[in-house]
Amino acid sequence: MEPCFFQTRQLAAGYHNEPVLRDITVDVDRGEILTLIGPNGAGKSTLLKSIAGQLPLISGSVWLDGRKTSDMSRQELSRRMAVVFTDKTYTELMTCGDVAAGGRYPYTGRFGVLSKQDWEIVRGAMEKTRAADLWDRDFNRISDGQRQRVLLARALCQQPEILLLDEPVSYLDIRYKLEFLSTLQRLVKETRMSVIMSLHELDMAQRISDKVLCIGNGGMERFGPPEEIFRDGYIGRLFGVESGSYDEGNGTTELEAAQGAPQVFVLAGGGSGRDTYRRLQRNGTAFATGILYTHDLDYPPAKALACEVVSLPGGESMGEAQLKAAKKLVDACGEVIVCRETFGPWEQMNRELWEYILKSGKRISGGKK
């Protein structure tokens, strides 16, 4: 079996010989995306700067294609590894084309003069990142999303085998976040370039990553594919979530549930109740809901936001016990919100619950009165 393209071995990183992180051992193959996640201040940026050679390693080693990066010249490393960090790029009267062209300097002579071939590579990189229309624009007069595309183009101009990115989408709106990460994913597939980046956006990290490194408590806590990381409530523990919740199954967050005995019962299912659950939470109204299968779209927000959820595992038939529990909650609540009035063949108990609600005399909203 061939060794992985990129590796760190027992790496310790920090400042002034004081380690922030210890014993970091990871591997990345060609064409893979490794994402670093963890709380603020855990050491993600420190690790990236150490891998890039901007900080001296306290101990351990970084390997690229079977060689220690410490044995490579700065020019060789800059040809093989590109970096896009969050530090502001200061430019004066530079066009976006000029900024992107800076990525070619590891390949120029001592005078830094770009050849015709160099400029063709720059233009090609701008096209790949969908930044070609910005060529003559002042770099200081474009949006953050446009700047990120130009900086990505500059990195591609180095024709790197591995790309390091530190929080590349933190200051972008949702359009530019999706655009940037989609472009990055496409480039990785086309070029077989490896990527190591840090992200705060856990939902996106879960979707784009081939591997995830979880950093906390001064070292690596977990390392592996997303399906092994985002499970069993681990993310909440990693980030020390105490108020609200993070659902690892669908990558969504919910605020803290309203406290107290339920005042409202919500009859929902199939995704029909999510907006109602969140509206009640915003209003500070404690509520109960059911009867939901645990694989139902409404179940994750219900579990996070409701005082009580009447539920049962997927694949099981709804039983008398769930119906009895739901009726008891309806009796205890002053109001019922009905988000749906039709039910599938496996939801006989919900159909009976709806009929019970109609006869209960409770104030009903959201459905037939």
Weakly predicted, low-confidence segments: none
Query: What's the CATH superfamily of the largest domain, by name?
Result: P-loop containing nucleotide triphosphate hydrolases
Helices and strands: which structural class?
alpha/beta
Number of structural domains: 2
In the CATH hierarchy, the third-tier topology of the largest domain is known as Rossmann fold
Q: The biggest beta sheet, please?
A: 6 strands, mixed
Number of strands: 17
The average pLDDT score comes to: 92
Report how far the terminal alpha carbons are from each other.
Answer: 68 Å
How many DSSP H or I helices? 13
Oligomer: single chain
Order of helices and strands: EEEHEEHEHHHEHEHEEHHEEEHEHEHEHE
Q: Can you tell me the CATH architecture of the largest domain?
A: 3-Layer(aba) Sandwich
Percentage of residues assigned to helices: 25-40%
Strand order of the largest sheet: 6-7-8-3-9-10
Give the overall silhouette: elongated
Rg: 27 Å
Beta-strand content estimate: 15-25%
CATH class of the largest domain: Alpha Beta
Task: Describe the structure in your own words.
It is a single chain. Helix content is 34%, strand content 24%. It has 369 residues and is an alpha/beta fold. It has two domains: 6-241, Rossmann fold; 255-365, Rossmann fold (3-Layer(aba) Sandwich), CATH 3.40.50. The chain has a six-stranded mixed β-sheet, sandwiched between helices. It has a five-stranded parallel β-sheet with strand order 15-14-13-16-17, with helices on both faces. It is elongated, with a radius of gyration of 27 Å. 36% of the residues are buried. The mean pLDDT is 92.
